């Protein structure tokens, strides 16, 4: 019974989020949102998900900071890739670098890989069993510098969100 309640709660929350994002509360859209919520709930299979309510405010602030950093990084990288494309000499130094994710959970490692892939000019091509990410970059030297600077900030925020 506990997993049914979690399933129903997750479906309801996902339906409400869908309706808030679409801004459309017509019966057909409510049905579509409900079906999407059921589909996601079936794929995720929530089984007694526990929320640490004492950590929730810190986790939410950390998640918002993380999203802000991600958006800023995407904007900066997009401008840098645009400048590379517009330069007739195409000043790139492509390469593959290894990044130790240093995350405690698989979810935070997967989010790190996803965020690196979202950043223009970088693409995670493989992740090994230890959580090391192999990333293809347009400019290897610039990416290594960037990763050193940002890795600790992201690791700190992800640990506050998920651990």
Output the keywords.
three-stranded antiparallel sheet, 65% helix, 11% strand, 5 helices, globular, 163 residues, 3 strands, 2 domains, mainly alpha
Tell me the strand percentage band.
5-15%
Treating each run of at least 4 consecutive H or I residues as one helix, how many helices? Answer: 5
Spans of at least 5 consecutive residues whose pLDDT stays below 50 are none
- Helicity level: 55-70%
> How many domains in all?
2
Number of strands: 3
What is the global morphology?
globular
First and last CA, distance = 27 Å
Provide the residue-averaged pLDDT: 79
Q: What topology, given as strand order, has the largest sheet? A: 1-3-2
Order of helices and strands: HHHEHEEH
- Rg on CA atoms, Å: 19 Å
The largest sheet, given as strand count, sense and whether it forms a barrel, is: 3 strands, antiparallel
- Estimated structural class: mainly alpha
What can you tell me about this protein's structure?
- The protein folds into two domains: 2-44; 56-162, no CATH class.
- It is mainly alpha-helical.
- Helix 1 packs across helix 2 and helix 3 runs antiparallel to helix 5 (140-162).
- It has a three-stranded antiparallel β-sheet with strand order 1-3-2, with helices on one face.
- The longest helix has 31 residues, at 56-86.
- The protein has five helices and three strands; from the N terminus they run H-H-H-E-H-E-E-H.
- A hairpin with a 4-residue loop joins strand 2 and strand 3 (132-137).
- The chain is globular and about 55 Å long.
- The two termini are 27 Å apart.
- It has helices spanning 2-22, 27-44, 56-86, 106-118, 140-162, and strands at 95-100, 122-127, 132-137.
